[in-house]
Amino acid sequence: MSLGTPERPLRVAIVGAGPSGMYAADALFKSGLTVIVDAFDRLPTPYGLLRGGVAPDHQRMKSVGAYYDRVAGHEKFSFFGNVTIGQDVSLDELRQHYDAIILSYGAETDRSLGIEGEYLPGSYAATEFVGWYNGHPDYQGRTFDLSHKAAVIIGQGNVAVDVTRILAKTIHELSTSDITENALSTLEHSKIEDIYLIGRRGPVQAAFTQLEIEELGKLDDCDVVVNPDDLILNEASELELSQSAKAQKNYAVLKEFSERKLTGNPKRIHVVFFRTPMSIYGKDKAESITFGVNRLEGDAGSQKAVLTDERDVLSAGLIFRSVGYRGCPLPGAPFDDKKCIVPNDKGQVLTTDGTPVSGLFVTGWIKRGPSGVLGTNKGDSAETVATLLAQILTLTPCPTPDSTMLRKRLEKLSIVSFDDWKKIDDHEKQQGSLVGKPREKLRFVHDMLSVIRPNQEDT
Length: 459
Ligand SMILES: Cc1cc2nc3c(=O)[nH]c(=O)nc-3n(C[C@H](O)[C@H](O)[C@H](O)COP(=O)(O)OP(=O)(O)OC[C@H]3O[C@@H](n4cnc5c(N)ncnc54)[C@H](O)[C@@H]3O)c2cc1C
Hints:
Blueprint lengths: L9 E6 L3 H11 L5 E7 L7 H4 L6 H4 L2 H8 L4 E5 L9 H7 L2 E4 L5 E2 L12 E3 H8 L16 E5 L3 H11 L2 H4 L6 H8 L5 E5 L11 H6 L6 E5 L8 H9 L1 H14 L8 E6 L2 E7 L6 E10 L6 E12 L2 E4 L3 E2 L17 E2 L2 E3 L5 E7 L2 H4 L7 H14 L14 H8 L6 H17 L10 H8 L7
Parallel strand pairs: 1-2, 1-4, 2-3, 4-18, 6-14, 7-8, 7-14, 8-10, 9-10
Antiparallel strand pairs: 5-15, 11-12, 12-13, 16-17, 17-18
Helix pairs in contact: 1-14, 11-12, 16-17
Bound molecules: flavin-adenine dinucleotide (FAD).
């Protein structure tokens, strides 16, 4: 019997119900075949970084969730939340019940700097801070000491800009976002006055985008400072600038910032270029950070930051490294330790020696690495699904095309269905409406489970 027909639907398990997993489900449903999609997520809440990464004060971005809701509303879609693949269920067990598996479990850890003092208290990964203020259950045990006058953010991507903005905004500015009440009350007592957003290379090479950097210049109680000397370009950077619309937009914003005068606002954001972190110093906790001053060398488009003999020391008790997210291996799946992705050819998972793994596919950040915006995952997942569907005639049908047994076994683990998630969603929105916020997030899994099943002891 052919897979993908009403008599024998194609059965696909999705590992990670983040944006890339939801776009993969969408592409499968749009294929015209009969497909059953079961999406597993280790959290009781779907949509990955849309909830736990995208900044709480960027609510317009969060509206993409309505699109994912429509995908999840498909009659052949099921959500299995609070189930960790590789721990609660192995890939081998999934293979018993699904003809194909799509890995879309993202890149959840951070890259390190590899410098002395990096793990002193006071020096953290931006991943932790972002997860904490966004109510991700993994990070709710973290505490951040904001009693210092200066904070340093290492890296100049949009995540670094998010962290900078959250530290710089007033409580009033944040009060209509969906930042957790817990984070808000910590930020309310923040003593931070100077926030340094620091990059290794120059203004033309910065990874942030215009809208994000521009927003830093529009905050209520905060000045933004750019040293005009940092905007003097070498020949190669001039050429790069002339060839990149993105760099031109960023440069125009930075130039305007560099012409501003301090207005006496209580906070200042300093956008600083040409600095490589060398070491973090502190007796028991971070007290200062030493930077090497760089110059750029090389051809336009591939200029490298090269250390000069000059050093800079900044006193700072709060340091965030924001130099990229990093994927981790999933038990039973191949993994490329260097690139920190699942090796693949257009979404077909390959062993490390390049052999295709039958029935196993990959999409999103764990396929291509942690780059691109939400929409980038749409095309990426379409490519993976096309690769999968091109093999429909040769896929080995699973031995037990039914998930009843699996579901029964998982029920003991407080598995969360899509309807259960909607109860959490409704509860959060209702709690948020009481304080003028889009939602007040539940921060702990046990609280989420209590909302779903209020009378159960184990919750
Ligand atoms: C801080 C931050 C801010 C961002 N802001 C924006 C923005 O403003 N605009 C924009 O367009 N893009 C933004 N992005 C990028 C966007 O979030 C990503 O492109 C997108 O989330 C990647 O989707 P993904 O599905 O590959 O991974 P993820 O979103 O990480 O989803 C992976 C899912 O897999 C689940 N999972 C992990 N391991 C397992 C397992 N073993 N078993 C089951 N489930 C598992 C996770 O719980 C998660 O739900 C931001 C990213 C970050 C980090």
